[in-house]
Amino acid sequence: MSINNNNIQDRMDKHMSGLNRYRESIYQLQSVWDNLSLLAQLSGTGTDMTETRTAFGQLTDDVLSNLSKETLNKTVTGLTAKAQVIVDIVIRNLFERTADIGFLATDDDIRLFLANELKGESSDKDANDLRVRFREYVKKYSVYSNIILLDTQGRVLVQLDEHNPVAHSADELINEAFSTSQAYVEIYRKTDLLPDQDKSLVYAYKVTSPDNKNVLGILCLCFRFENEMEGVFKDLIAENDWAVGIMLDKDARVIATSDQYQVPLGAKLEITEDGEDWKMTRFAGREYLTVTKHTKGYQGYMGPGWMGHAMVPLEHAFGDCIEELINGINPGMLSKVMRSPLLFSQSL
Fold first, then answer.
1. What structural domains does the chain harbor?
2. pLDDT of 47 strictly over 70
3. CA-wise closest residue to 85 among 302, 316, 296
4. C-alpha closest to that of 326 among 59, 67, 56, 78
5. Using one digit for the tens of pLDDT, what is the confidence trace for 222-243?
6. Could you tell me where the DSSP H helices lie in the chain?
7. Considering the entire predicted model, what is its pTM?
8. What is the 3 state secondary structure string of 301-344?
9. 247: pLDDT strictly greater than 80
């Protein structure tokens, strides 16, 4: 659930340990100013430090406010980059795979096998030879867990994974692939082609005769989604990074996660809406800073509606951001500010 709080920035400030250390130091300086003002009044020197004290107070308030905002922006920027990369790199990989189905569907060996099958002339040896052909292809392009060849009635003729318990499919995917005018049919859902899996990403297309007049069968490529995501998360999320990288389906359910202990598969998450850069949410009794990004697409391909999502526990969201921001200030500029006569008199 999202957290509705008018003082949400104040709540986040409590978790900015570096900011709070600087806040304490500044408050100590403000106490010094108060003491100096009091001493000036008691001594009767006539020195009025009220204006300087007010200017210093305004300066410190502005500094703390800007540090807080920049700290948040730094964390949000990191989460945004992660969420965007998660979805865009996968969509690009999927786009490259959409060409595979069209390429394999015109393979001469597959066409010959199906033509012989229609004439009742195929043999077990022919099926084994084709399975070897599938294995060679998957060895080259390791993103597939299975390749399934069916006749036009949904009967499984050859599949790479001989342990997959399917002999016939009644999935609507078969009819869609048979009749489509598109280059492929893409599904991400439960399918009887892969009965042991809850949801599967499958690309399907019709195999036609060389003259494209007759449909001989249906070819299905089953994407090895888990392995693909493991590689993405490994490259994107460092071991000491508290952020969790997540892929969400179109219903905002987790289909891949870099940390299943924090955010398990199948969980439904709250996402940032259009116009929201970030959102503070609560999940499993913990507060998170979250960012969700839709894909930018790749060459017009937008994928199956998935979203990249990144979230970090609020208590670990800001780390050493303050120190990094302070250290990043140009020393010369800092010196000029500290010597400004608008803030401090020459005598001070």
1. 97-226 (3.30.450.20)
2. no
3. 296
4. 67
5. 998 888 899 999 999 988 899 9
6. 8-13, 17-43, 50-105, 108-118, 124-140, 172-179, 225-236, 321-327, 331-338
7. 0.77
8. ECCCCCEEEEEEEHHHCCCCHHHHHHHCCCHHHHHHHHCCCCCC
9. yes
